[in-house]
């Protein structure tokens, strides 16, 4: 059993982060779960939320949108639509996305609003703002 986990966070256009960590806590669709070295093989779907990485130097917080987590032989692969380390989150952009989504959700009566889409956009923006507050 390795003492640490190898972690790759991959989005459709890039390798967002590749690192060795002591523990990963992920926002599973059926609840948050933690992975330590020696974890059994696992394939799980992820919700929009926060990935917490524990390292000897401290904690890192990463925003992830929905996707998958695979654990195999002490290697964790996170495959998501988008991911940003807390320090890389553009707070103004997330704030603007939040306002846009809130505005759309306040006009649902006009029939042309895709409510589900606006709700998911709002959820992404709120989680980005929360993760951005945790810059280490
Ligand atoms: P926006 O409406 O601002 O584009 P979004 O939630 O629709 O927000 P996504 O589709 O999740 O954006 O992401 C598109 C790309 O932009 C991804 O590469 C993502 O990492 C990046 N991105 C989106 N919002 C931010 C942000 N606030 N800070 C940094 N990168 C961001």
Could you explain the architecture of this structure?
With 136 residues, the protein is an alpha+beta fold. It has 2 domains: 5-86, ATP Synthase, domain 1 (Sandwich); 89-132, ATP synthase delta/epsilon subunit, C-terminal domain (Single alpha-helices involved in coiled-coils or other helix-helix interfaces, Up-down Bundle). Helix content is 24%, strand content 44%. The protein has helices at 91-105, 115-132; strands spanning 5-11, 14-21, 23-28, 31-35, 42-46, 49-55, 58-64, 67-72, 75-80, 83-85. A 5-stranded mixed β-sheet has the order 2-1-9-8-5, with no helix packed on it. A hairpin with a 2-residue loop joins strand 6 (49-55) and strand 7 (58-64). Helix 1 packs antiparallel against helix 2. The protein binds adenosine-5'-triphosphate (ATP).
Which helices and strands, and how do they pair?
Elements: E1 5-11, E2 14-21, E3 23-28, E4 31-35, E5 42-46, E6 49-55, E7 58-64, E8 67-72, E9 75-80, E10 83-85, H1 91-105, H2 115-132
Parallel strand pairs: 1-9
Antiparallel strand pairs: 1-2, 3-4, 3-6, 5-8, 6-7, 7-10, 8-9
The structure holds adenosine-5'-triphosphate (ATP).
CATH C-level category of the largest domain: Mainly Beta
| Count of discrete domains | 2
Question: Can you summarize the main beta sheet?
Answer: 5 strands, mixed
Fraction of residues in helices?
A: 10-25%
Number of DSSP strand runs: 10
Task: Report the radius of gyration as a whole number of Å.
Answer: 16 Å
Compressed to H and E, one letter per element, the order equals: EEEEEEEEEEHH
Catalogue the unreliable spans. none
Under CATH, the topology of the largest domain is which? ATP Synthase, domain 1
Through-space gap between termini: 29 Å
Mean pLDDT across all residues, rounded?
A: 95
The CATH homologous superfamily of the largest domain is called: F0F1 ATP synthase delta/epsilon subunit, N-terminal
| Structural class assignment | alpha+beta
């Amino acid at each position: 059993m390795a003492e640490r986990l190898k972690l790759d966070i991959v989005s459709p256009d890039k390798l967002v982060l590749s690192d060795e960590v002591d523990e990963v806590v992920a926002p599973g669709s059926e609840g948050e779960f933690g992975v330590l070295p020696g974890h059994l093989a696992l394939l799980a779907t992820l919700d929009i939320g926060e990935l917490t990485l524990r390292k000897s130097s401290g904690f890192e917080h990463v925003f992830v949108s929905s996707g998958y987590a695979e654990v195999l032989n002490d290697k964790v692969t996170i495959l998501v639509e988008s991911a940003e380390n807390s320090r890389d989150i553009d707070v103004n952009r997330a704030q603007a996305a939040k306002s846009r989504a809130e505005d759309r959700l306040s006009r649902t009566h006009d029939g042309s609003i895709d409510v589900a889409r606006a709700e998911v956009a709002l959820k992404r923006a709120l989680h980005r703002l929360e993760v951005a507050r945790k810059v280490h």
